[in-house]
Amino acid sequence: MGIMDAWKGGRIIYAYLIWVVFKAATAGGLYDAMNSLMEDVVVEAGKNVTLGCPGVTENSLVLMLEWRANGMRLLEYKSKSTTVVQRTEQNRMSLSLKNYSLQLHPVTAADSGTYECLVNNRNAPEAVIKLIVR
């Protein structure tokens, strides 16, 4: 069977489509903190802090988004609605819908840790933000 026969039978197209689907499905990969960019943010206790969602701009199409701190879900945005998962005392946490940044007001020592912004069901964040409260 020659290349033309395989082409006519659609085998090459079928194999190519399988390859494309496989590459798209594995593009996010498994989360590996060692391979993610780390951004340090240092702030004084009692001040307000805004953590930008790495890789997201005002022009990004965001259908769903999740902020995590130390592996725990903090809040999620879906269908133009924000749900705070982890309640903080005096509701100190909010999401800016302009650029999907996480706002903590005021920040406390207990807020120190690693923060991740996951967009549109991605497995891994563009970067991990390490918040250091002094």
Brief synopsis:
The protein has 134 residues and is α+β, with helices and mostly antiparallel strands.
Question: How would you describe this protein?
Answer:
With 134 residues, the chain is an alpha+beta fold. It folds into 2 domains: 1-36; 38-133, Immunoglobulin-like (Sandwich). Helices cover 16% and strands 35% of the residues. The chain has 2 helices and 9 strands. The protein has helices at 3-8, 11-25; strands at residues 37-43, 49-51, 64-69, 72-78, 81-84, 93-95, 102-104, 113-119, 127-133. The protein is elongated. 17% of the residues are buried. Its main location: membrane. The chain crosses the membrane at residues 12-31. It is found in: Cell membrane.
H/E series: HHEEEEEEEEE
Tell me, rounded to a whole number, the average pLDDT: 78
Shape: elongated
Low-confidence stretches: 24-34
By DSSP, the count of extended strands is 9
Q: End-to-end distance, in Å?
A: 71 Å
Query: Which topology of the largest domain does CATH recognise?
Result: Immunoglobulin-like
Helix content class: 10-25%
